[in-house]
Amino acid sequence: MDGRTAKLRISTKIACLYGAILFVMLCLMSFVTGLGIYFSYYNQAEKELEITMHNVERHIDDETAFTRNFWRDDPIMPGVILRVTDVSGQLMIDTDSRYPSIDEIDDGVVRKKPLWANREMQVSKVHNMIIYHSRLTTVYRGELLQLHFYRTITADESFLRTLQYSVLALTVVSFLLALFVGYFMSNRILQPIRTMTKLVRKIEIERMDRRVPVPASHDELSELADTFNHMLDRLETGLKKQQRFVSDASHELRTPVTVILGYSDLLSRWGRSDKDVLDEGIASIHSEAVDMQQLIEKLLFLARADQKRQVLHKENLELSELVEDVMKKMKLVEKDHTVELRRNDEGEIYADPVTMRQMIRVFLQNSSKYTPKGGHIWADSHRSEDGKSMILELADDGIGIAKENQEKIFERFYRVDSSRTKDGGVGGTGLGLSIARWIAEQHDIDIAIESDLGKGTKFILTIPLVS
Ligand code: ADP
What is the pLDDT of residues 261-292, one digit of tens each? Predict the structure, then answer.
């Protein structure tokens, strides 16, 4: 396709294409019809001439030609003219004296006969007439005779020409009509696309709420508009999520930065003279910086996950070993709770050890954060009944999660009680479970939750075994 064709509107292209197809078809039809008309005209005349010639020949053979019986038999087909001349060219019999003379007809013989004319017959044009004729030389009763048979193809040659011109004119008119109607119709059919294009041009990041009008007809165009609107819905949701993520992240980072600024201000005023202020300032700044670092690590993890850049190195590994190791380290750092590994069945899984550990730690650290001092945290790992997976339960007898919040805890930055701060003993960011859920999804792990307010929480992970 060259540049000019590419720039044409679809409606113009469709109109041209259909116009061209119709034009070719009409030309073909006119040609075939014209040919058919000519062929049948000549064929009919040829047959009548042949029958007449045959009849006359029969009578010549019987020696009954030109007798009273001959004329009674009526051997000459209607429309056929018979003329008989002797050797000198003297006209002896003429069935139509008003018909053009033999000389006139002989003078009018066309050199190039039409394709559909019989090779053994002649075609003459006299005045406006087209005459089809044949000649027979015979000896009858000892005399050499010439028999001339004539049949008119058309008395008015212009009739056939007019017919040709009319068909041609009809073809051209039909072609132009097809072009015009085709252009008009396709223009109308494609109008919704133009409306869509105009509207889509107006959709910008700031105005994502606009939608393309869906045509009432249930066709490809309404499907396109629907698909487009769904895509816009998804984009809008994604964009809103992203905007919320950025604003939540900035909000989370603001608190530690404010605290650090506050302490650095305090240190610059009193830090040099008051050792207690100095110690408290340094400790607080350090603790806030550590929190900030952890938050940034989590944000980076999720950002990488969103961009599908978070790399996982999956391998076959023994779940019991991994659980045992994580629990051992948990026991080492946990001073306020009783940590217990109740059951740890063997089972080989296909997973990335680093993120698997990270995921289990999210649940255990949450149990630690949301279980009052002296409470219990435990793990239980066993095979499922169908033997296809491992069931890893991570539980505590802590504060529990109300039913209405159990769905939301996996959302980014969601905290059941966000007013709790580090001073209250809990320093959450609301990102841990989002990360855990992403890791679980990457390993086809199903997470179920059983929790009651005041009684405790149990996360049940169903981890597929290597088959
Ligand atoms: P956070 O950093 O706040 O712990 P998470 O995404 O890990 O963020 O958890 C989201 C919220 O779910 C927490 O703020 C907490 O309210 C609730 N939650 C998670 N685990 C437990 C648990 N074991 N017991 C009670 N509440 C929990």
Answer: 999 999 999 988 999 999 999 999 999 999 99
Residue located nearest, by CA, to atom 21 of ligand 1: 366
Give strand pairing partners of 338: 376
Using CB distances shorter than 6 Å, the residues near ligand 1 are 362, 366-367, 369-370, 396, 398-401, 409, 414-416, 428-434, 457
Ligand 1 centre and the CA of 288: distance in Å?
A: 20
Residue by residue, DSSP assigns 222-236 as HHHHHHHHHHHHHHH
What is the 24 CA–ligand 1 centroid distance (Å)? 75
* Encoded tokens for 179: 């072009």
Cα–Cα distances (Å) from 174 to 13, 15, 25, 165, 181, in that order, read 18, 13, 11, 14, 10
Q: Which two tokens stand for residue 410?
A: 């996996």
- pTM attached to this predicted model: 0.64
**Cα 434 to middle of ligand 1, angstroms:** 10
Instruction: Mean pLDDT check: name the lowest of 211-220, 299-308, 375-384.
Output: 211-220
For atom 25 of ligand 1, the residue with the nearest CA is 400
Between CA 94 and CA 100 the distance in angstroms is: 11
**Interior angle at CA 165, CA 159 and CA 170, nearest 5:** 125
Distance CA 183, CA 419 (A): 67
Task: Dump strand ranges (E) for 325-372.
Answer: 338-344, 348-351
Report DSSP letters for 239-277, one per residue: HHHHHHHHHHHHHHHHHHHHHHHHHHHHIIIIITT-HHH
In whole angstroms, what is the distance from residue 317 CA to residue 319 CA? Answer: 6
Residue bearing the CA closest to ligand 1, atom 2: 428
Q: Which of 363, 366, 418, 460 to mutate to test the pocket of ligand 1 (most atoms within 8 A of CB)?
A: 366
CA of 366 to the centre of ligand 1 (A): 6
Residues 6+ apart with CB under 8 A from 108: 100, 124, 125, 126, 131
